[in-house]
Specification:
This protein has 135 residues and is α+β, with helices and mostly antiparallel strands. 16% of the residues lie in helices and 41% in strands. Strand 1 and strand 2 form a beta hairpin. The termini are far apart. The relative contact order is 0.27.
Amino acid sequence: MNETPILVTAAIMEEDGKFLITQRLKDSHNGLRWEFPGGKLHFGEDPKKCLEREIKEELDIKIKVKNIFECSSFVYDKKHIVLLAFLCDFVSGNIKKAGINDFAWVTRKEMKNYNLTEADLPFVKKLRKWKIKSR
């Protein structure tokens, strides 16, 4: 058992009342489940830079990472995931499925129709109470 928690970042991106979620690759841990996009922090890496890198690698888009939104902690069998979610703005690019199976822009209400990972559920709970930014 790995006793060291795995630090992971996640992007909370909202456009017109919808949030970007991605579906994990079939052969990955939690395969084909949905999550807010992001990825593992490398040793010595800044969490915001990690998130920008992961989003570029997996979705081929550029984002601007802003403030921390929430954090969560969940133990899956023998993996302890600590997830840092940041509010992010989409900057440029067209989403490509480089490191994901699929993606969707969904409302807070629609999120219940997706099999989101347990580590992401606290973010969904907070989003239900969150005021959508006006444009």
